Amino acid sequence: MDEELLELQRQFEFAQQVKSSVRLSDRNVVELVQKLQELRVIDFDLLHTVTGKEYITQEQLKNEIATEICKLGRVSVIDLADTIGVDLYHVEKQAQDVVLNDPGLMLVQGEIISQSYWDSIAEEINERLQECSQISVAELAGQLQVGSELVQSVLEPRLGTLVKARLEGGQLYTPAYVARVTAMVRGASRGIFVPSNLSALWVPLQQLVQDMNVSSGVAVENAFFQSIFNRLLKEEEMLGSLRAGTHWTPSVFAVAQKECVDSFFSQNSYIPYETMQKLGISQAVQFLQSRYPDGKPLSAVFIHSSMIEMLDSTTEDAIEQNSWIDSLSVLPASFTSQDANKILLLCPSVQSALKVAEKALILAESYVISSGFIKGVYDQIEKEAEAFSIQASTASLIDHPSKSSESQESIPANTDKGSKKKKGKSASMKTATVETVPDDEEEARPKSKRNQKKGRDSSSSQKLDAKAGGKKESVKAQEGNNFIPPDGWVMKKIVDSVPEFEDEGMENPDSILKHLADLMRPMLINSLKERRKKIFTENADRMKRLMDDLQKKLDESFLNMQLYEKALELFEDDQSTSAVLHRHLLRTTAATIADTLLHDLDILNKLKNGIEVGDSKAQDPVLLESSERMALAKNLNGSLSRKALALVEALEGKRVDAFMTTFRDLAEESGLVLKKLDKKLERTLLHAYRKDLISQVSTESDPVALLAKVVSLLYIKAHNKALQAPGRAIAAAISHLKDKLDESAYKTLTDYQTATVTLLALMSASTGEEHDCSADRILSKRELLESQMPVLRSLVLGDSQPQQS
């Protein structure tokens, strides 16, 4: 078999050497190779060269790559592709297989490097080290055009063998160089006697070493010095402690440090942490607790138990004598208020006083004040606070904070003096006389929302509660604060009682004055609130009666006002007469009910605020001046005050409808329910009004007053309206009756009105000494009117009836 193979090889070799007379073209060769591959004669992959004229197998490509690596030691994959003449993709692929199968090779950044190459590089580095003592790894990496980490990784296993050096901080040092630097580090470290940062020590050493190796130009890293120092410390060539890697404390300093601490603490029984920091001890509490287990750490100092005993005896005396003491006054200046507070809590006498019925209190951290002392000061201030509350309560109603920017002095209403209007319907009915009321008076009043009392059964009470619900708390809180002494007042009274506290200063928020005021003011608030609650309870029944009486008075008078308002509709076309009638109604009936409401709301406000109010005659209607209405309105609070001011303004206006709107708003805000005039009530009131007028006409003896009553009665018969007309509007009112009366009755009425005007003119002109002729004329004219009174009465009481509309 072997002989046959040898024979075939010889024949194949001979065939290759024989020159063929027939040559195949490149295309034929390619087709031939493809055919052989199809026939599976060639069952392995063939690669083209970059020229396209040659084939190469993958195995041959690997062999050629390995040959190049063995020859050069370090070769680029790109250079291999150019040398072998195969596409870079195939070269990279086969190169990876070569490196993977050979542990002595590595592929780094597109280059294949063998271990023999690194051995030769290590020998070169060792030769250079002998010349310059140190070499930077970064410098070697730059020269070799590889990464520093790679250089360091290949050098580390060769240190001590091929490379006689020490690798530290990216630098290669010879043993002689390391020994020289070690001696420098040892000497410099032993010369330190105080805590130091080693980083500051390495700076001069680094400069010194650099000056010694000027030719190399390479600086020594601090890590190299630090590693040498750590090794020396481990070998106990230096004594001391190292913290955080760089903070070095020599043992000689630690010994001196402890001696200073012992000396200070034994002499003073305390030591401030600031002193410890000056001695270089940062963790003072841990240091002192480990050295003095019986001591107590405070905020700024560390104390011996004897300090507690000393302070305890002093505070015990103060508590027993119902006095006070500032512990900072007996403690050293190094103690802060926090220290004083902590040491006080450690005193047995203070602990006992705090537990047993609060016999004493600690205020402002350093003050120990006995409860007896506090009670004595509080009792004195409480009496003055009651006087303050009463004074502030009265002042708040006279000069309310919500007063407008225009300063106007409030004039309290005097309901016991001045003229009174008659009670009941007769006062509102008897309106025919000539009146002179000022047309322009300005009134304003702040309003105070009234709070109802529990247990009120009337509808006005329920409505007031609902209205006040949303704002009651805020309003009451604001009002209550007006009667409570402020902090400044309380602190001033404390200084008056204890002059020693004056130096503390009232502006200092941490002063004992502020703390005492904060303690006493809530007690004063509770006391004053209880007092006000008591007064409020006492006034509750009176307030309920007042509201019920006010509701009853307004029920009748406001219905009359609505009745009179309807009569004004007859004169809408006569603007001048309408204005006179509106103004007259505002001055009379409207003023009466407005004054009644304002007066009673003012009394209610005073009762609510605990102010004593004398009993007034409820039977007499209230008559107020413009300035008095203004004062009462301003004494009220919040929205009630605004609506009261609007009412006063409308009362001084020219339209009854504006007054009615503001009156309803104020009554509703006050919790009162105003009845609306319906047809049934209107008929009832007109009937009563007509009956009353008939009675007055029958008994009236004044010829001038009779005319207005007759005209009012005629308007009821003709228009079913209750007219309220002043003297100067009587003529216009009579003219509106022309179509409702027969000619003789109308003439009688106009003649009587003309005679009345003449009589009033004569009376007005008779000033000074009356002449006989003037008196005779007045008497004559009066007698004439009196003679016509039966005729005038007959217009409303006799057979002559007005035509119904």
Write up what this structure looks like.
With 805 residues, this protein is mainly alpha-helical. The protein contains 32 helices and 17 strands. The chain has a three-stranded antiparallel beta sheet. Strands 6-8-7 form a three-stranded antiparallel beta sheet, with helices on both faces. Strands 9-11-10 form a three-stranded antiparallel beta sheet. A hairpin with a 3-residue loop joins strand 10 (240-243) and strand 11 (247-250). Helix 29 (703-719) runs parallel beside helix 32 (772-797).
What key attributes describe this structure?
805 residues; mainly alpha; three-stranded antiparallel beta sheet; 32 helices; 17 strands; elongated; disordered C terminus
User: Number of helical runs?
Assistant: 32
* Strand elements, count: 17
Largest sheet: 3 strands, antiparallel
| pLDDT averaged over residues | 76
What percentage of amino acids are in beta strands? 5-15%
Name the helicity range: 55-70%
Spans of 5+ residues with little confidence (pLDDT < 50)?
Answer: 400-480, 799-805
Strand order of the largest sheet: 3-5-4
Structural class of the helix and strand makeup?
mainly alpha
Radius of gyration: 59 Å
3D shape = elongated
> Termini, distance in Å?
159 Å
Biased composition (Polar residues): 404-413
Keywords: Coiled coil, Transferase, Ubl conjugation pathway
Protein name: E3 UFM1-protein ligase 1 homolog
Domain E3 UFM1-protein ligase 1-like N-terminal: 4-288
